Amino acid sequence: MDIAAAVGAERLREIMSELLDRSTAVVKRYGGTLSQFTGDGIMAVFGAPITLEDHAVRACLAALGVQEEAKRLAVGVQERDGLDLWLRVGLNSGRVIAGEIGSGPFGYTAVGGQVGMAQRMESVAPPGGVMLSASTARLVDGAAALGEAELVQIKGADEPVPAHRLLGMGDRHRGVGRVESNLVGRRWEMSAVEGLLQRAVDGHGAVVGVVGLPGIGKSRLVREVAAMARDRDVEVFTAFCESHTSQVPFHAVARLVRAATGVEGLDAVTAACRSALGFPTQTPRTWRSSMTYWASPIPRFPCPESIPMPVDGG
C-alpha cells in the first residue's frame, strides 16, 4: 500500500472506487460473482452460485480483463499522481463451501483451503501478471497460453508448489487436435449426415442441427462428419460458441469468417490487413461489410511491415 502514503486517503478512495467498478464489470461480464472486498483487492468466484462448465476459462478471461482495465486506469494515475499502478491476480480451482455466511449482511462468499491457495497465487504473481495454480492450469490446458511451470514458495507450505503464469487466451478449441478412438454406434445418424454431405458435394447445400443431452456425443459426431468431408477433399472451416459470449453479436459468425480467411489468432489490425491483401478484388462497400464480422475498424494507418501470409510455390 505504498500508494496510500503517496496520494492520501481521499485520492486512494477515488482510485480504489474506480478500479472496483471496472473490475466488477469485468467479473460480471464473464459470469463471476464478486465475493469480497479486502480494502486493497477483491475476491471473485466462478462456478458458484451458478454452475459453469468452463469456470476456469472464464476466470482466466476475467483476470486478463481486469489487468487491461487496470492498465487503462494506470495511465490516468500516472498523469495525475506520477505513480505507477500495478495489480497482481491469482487463480486457483478446487472444492469450497460457498453461500451466505452468518446472519448479518456479509453476502455470498466461499471458504476453504482453496480460497487461501488463490491468495497465495496472487502473492507470488508479478506486478501486472496473473498466476495460476496447478489445478487451474490443468483445467485451461489447450485453451490458454501458459508460461513454463515454476516452483514458488508460498506461505504455509513447507515445499515449493508448482505455478504457471497466464500469458493469454487462444482461439483454439480444446477438442481440436485430440486423438480419437474408433466411433462405436451412431450408424443411423452417420448415414443420414453422410447422405446430406454427398448432396452438398453435388451442389445442394444443407444445414444440420445436432441436439442432445450433455455428454451424449454431439461434438464427436461433428468431428466425425468433418473428417469424412476432408476425406472427400472438401475444405472444412470450424468455429465454436462460448457461453460467456452469448451477448456478443455475430461472435460465432466472426469466428467462422476468421477461420475461412486464415486469420485465426491474429490481432484485429493484422487480421484486417491480411484479409485486405487476401481479397484485392473486393469493393470498398463489400470490404466494409466483411470487416463488421470481426468488429475491427477499417485501418487508417499503415499495416504492420511483416504479416504472415501463405505462399504457394510455383
* SS strand fraction: 5-15%
Number of domains: 3
Count of helical stretches: 10
Low-pLDDT residue intervals, each spanning 5 or more residues: 280-301, 303-314
Give me the secondary-structure category.
Answer: alpha+beta
In one word, what is the shape?
A: globular
CATH class category of the largest domain: Alpha Beta
Query: Helical proportion?
Result: 40-55%
Major sheet = 5 strands, mixed
Order of helices and strands: HHEEHEEEHEHEEEHHHHH
What would you say the CATH architecture of the largest domain is?
A: 2-Layer Sandwich
Question: Terminal Cα separation, in Å?
Answer: 63 Å
Task: Give me the CATH superfamily of the largest domain.
Answer: Nucleotide cyclase, GGDEF domain
Number of strand elements: 9
Kindly state the mean pLDDT as a whole number?
Answer: 79
Structural features, described:
By secondary structure, the protein is α+β, with helices and mostly antiparallel strands. The protein folds into three domains: 2-169, 2-Layer Sandwich (Alpha-Beta Plaits), CATH 3.30.70; 185-236, no CATH class; 238-309, no CATH class. The protein has helices at 2-7, 9-29, 55-81, 113-124, 134-139, 187-201, 218-231, 251-261, 268-278, 284-291; strands at residues 33-37, 42-45, 89-91, 97-100, 108-111, 130-133, 144-146, 150-152, 161-169. The strands form three sheets. Strands 3, 6, 7, 8 and 9 form a five-stranded mixed β-sheet that branches. A two-stranded antiparallel ribbon has the order 1-2. Strands 4-5 form a two-stranded antiparallel sheet. A hairpin with a 7-residue loop joins strand 4 and strand 5 (108-111). Mean pLDDT is 79; it is low at 280-301 and 303-314.
